[in-house]
Amino acid sequence: MSFPTPGKPVRGSKSGNHLMALFDLLGRSWSMGIIWRLHEGPCTFRALQERCESISPSTLNKRLKELVQAAMIKRTLEGYALTKKGEEIFQLLHPLEDWARNWAKDF
Amino acid sequence: MSFPTPGKPVRGSKSGNHLMALFDLLGRSWSMGIIWRLHEGPCTFRALQERCESISPSTLNKRLKELVQAAMIKRTLEGYALTKKGEEIFQLLHPLEDWARNWAKDF
DNA sequence: ACTTTTTGCTACTTTTTTTGTAGCAATGCT
DNA sequence: AGCATTGCTACAAAAAAAGTAGCAAAAAGT
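Predict the joint structure of the above. Result:
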């Protein structure tokens, strides 16, 4: 199993532009949700599945493998956890929360 | 055609948590890429298709309709363009570019 | 006014992703 | 030993995305 690798063709860039590779990775179902939920703390596969409310084990497994390969998630004695890079991505996504709150008002 | 609406069930939240709705929307293929490319300036459907390098018209059309409904994109005399909200989202995504550059070094 | 080009799609089929459900092997607890 | 929990895998079904062709409307050119 592979993940959208910078330097290889990805969605949005035949030459594998790094940003497009990142968009391809984060733009898969549940990617951002998993990172978000994992930030609450390391946890087991099954617990993570529950945090996500409705993810199937097959999808969770696939996404986890990709994110591990992409160095955003690692396995620890306490289960799956964000790496330093994963934590950084979380911090970059963080501002979306407030923005989304505001955005939601219009619906 | 509908988009992940805050307040209604979305991927990651049965109650439609606004952030999960946003993740659902942005986490569809090409969503972030389209926003990114549109920031270069308003343009026509066909031109946007070329900016995206490899998007199919059916997917582009679907994504555009969703993003228009989500108030991130509007139609103008010059073609499709980011709205104020779309521009804000772009600004929030912007830091990902530098991060991705760095991340890419490890592959 | 009429031809040509460009534009914004739609229609349709194929391929890929995601979902949903069942369940099994490994580990740990009692 | 027996039972519960964990981390998955297998498989089928549904949904999303890709790929290709082409048409109707508008714009541009002559």
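The CA atoms of residues 8 and 14 of chain B lie 7 Å apart.
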